[in-house]
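Risk mitigation, structural track. In case the binding assays with zinc ion fail to produce interpretable data, a predicted complex structure has been prepared as a fallback.
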Amino acid sequence: MAFSVKIGDSEVVALRDGHHPLNWGWHFPEVGGEQEECLLNFGGFLVITGSTVTLVDTGWGPYAGPPGGLDRDCNLLEEMASVGIGPGDVDLVAMTHLHPDHIGWNLILEDRVRPRFTKARYLVPRADWEHYKALPEKHPNIVQQAMPLEDLGVLELIEDGHAVTSSLKAVAMPGHTPGHTGFLLDAGCFLLGDLAHHPHVLEETGWIQRFDWNPELAVESRERVFEQVERDGTLVGLGHFPYPSLGHVIKNEGRRQWKPL
Ligand SMILES: [Zn+2]
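Fallback model:
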């Protein structure tokens, strides 16, 4: 059963969509391979408030996967089903950014292209939409799982401060992608997308991940947000961290560390 935690009137559920060993040299070319072995998780989160269900990021999905393959003992839909949520129950799909490992379950491609989450509006950061739409060589999974949202009439472009629900707000934290966005739940949980891929990066904010679009901006966003969540003691979700990918950023002997739930 998927891991869930109650926060105020809401429930936040951590969802897995596979994992594989973190390849340090590939993800952090300047840092290299002398780091401990660990798993890179892929997935997303559900935020359930009253009868409103928001799905934040949709994993690799059934059609794509990372280089080196994916180990999957469960998938995102099975994880959702384990807490009683089906694809038709999702009201909002909110994407932190448009990388392929965050959009994979968006659409069903068999027969005809259609939304998998049948009643949902799909929220995409405007700066990501404009960036990827204009890229001549888009990743095929972005072409398949994001670009059709517009013609299907389910796309809503969002910017910093957008109220996803009355208690969940979009917060721009650009750098990993132009529109990279976190989602802050009033009651005290901040879902941070790909602000970091491993707990070491909480301290080593200058470690540049292979896909950081603008490294300088990425470092700036990391420093600003990590300082904030450490000071405020906010529960955070970082979907690539070891499952359940929820925890606190703390200071221990002068160094920023991850304290998993
Ligand atoms: Zn990612």
